């Protein structure tokens, strides 16, 4: 992830006090984590120790944009708002991990909650567990930031055991207005099994835009690939014909340039 702007690095005083108490070497330091017991043990088995729960938050006013009734189109103003708000939350979470001296953040969750005190206000929250490797290594990504990953503790352990390192959570978003059918077309489809081409094209285009933006982020991190990809359709509060397509996953690279995963050997049963 790239930092959205310098202000994103601001951490409230109360949060700084909490982080100071968790920094390694403090007499009263103890870690906090939302990892399950199994995830915690597997993260430790992978060679990382939890430092503390880190979070970032941004309450964002999501603007308004009118879509043409009969036209498929991206709502670029809304796409930018959803992307920027998530970036603010992510960068603030990364800043907290930096204060703890973390190598990375595992089991990251990105959540959105629309507030009752403002119909256009939404809180974007990023939460994860900051971790540090037991052995020194180059775990930070090419931007110099702690890696971020939304993989579970089990998947994180498997990834490291296979010789791969997470680089960062990568994402792409596209808020898209899907055209309405004209009355004559809608009436002609009654009782028929028929594809609705404009709907197909709209959903296909919107997903492609989200996927391509996620891949572009991975390329910036010089990743080999993206694992654990989720492609979500999030309606939020825009009505039935406008929705957000959101692609998210963890960019990864091999720990060694010459690394390859050995193919399993097929063992045949003995015969007489």
TrEMBL record:
Coiled coil: none annotated. InterPro entries: UPF0145_dom_sf (IPR035439), UPF0145_YbjQ-like (IPR002765). Belongs to the UPF0145 family. PANTHER family: UPF0145 PROTEIN SCO3412, UPF0145 PROTEIN YBJQ. This is Heavy metal-binding domain-containing protein. It comes from Amycolatopsis camponoti. The lineage of its organism: Bacteria, Bacillati, Actinomycetota, Actinomycetes, Pseudonocardiales.
């Amino acid at each position: 992830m790239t930092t959205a702007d310098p202000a994103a690095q601001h951490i409230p005083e109360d949060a700084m006090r909490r982080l100071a108490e968790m920094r390694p070497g403090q007499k009263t330091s103890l870690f906090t984590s939302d990892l399950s017991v199994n995830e915690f043990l597997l993260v430790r088995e992978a060679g990382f120790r939890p430092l503390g729960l880190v979070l970032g938050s941004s309450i964002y006013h999501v603007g308004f944009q009118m879509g043409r009734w009969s036209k498929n189109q991206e709502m670029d103003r809304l796409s930018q708002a959803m992307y920027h708000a998530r970036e603010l939350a992510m960068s603030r979470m990364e800043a907290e991990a930096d204060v703890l001296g973390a190598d990375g953040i595992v089991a990251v969750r990105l959540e959105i909650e629309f507030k009752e005190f403002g119909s256009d206000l939404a809180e974007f929250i990023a939460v994860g567990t900051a971790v540090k490797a037991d052995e020194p290594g180059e775990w930070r990504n090419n931007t110099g930031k702690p890696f971020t990953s939304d993989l579970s503790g089990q998947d994180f352990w498997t990834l490291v055991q296979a010789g791969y390192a997470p680089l960062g959570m990568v994402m792409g978003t596209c808020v898209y207005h899907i055209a309405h059918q004209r009355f004559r077309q809608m009436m002609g489809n009654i009782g028929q099994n028929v594809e609705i081409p404009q709907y197909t094209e709209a959903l296909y285009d919107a997903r492609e835009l989200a996927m391509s933006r996620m891949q572009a982020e991975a390329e910036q991190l010089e990743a080999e690939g993206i694992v654990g990809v989720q492609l979500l359709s999030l309606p939020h509060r825009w009505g039935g014909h406008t929705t957000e397509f959101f692609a998210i996953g963890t960019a990864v690279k091999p720990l060694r340039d010459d690394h390859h995963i050995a193919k399993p050997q097929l063992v045949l049963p003995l015969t007489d």
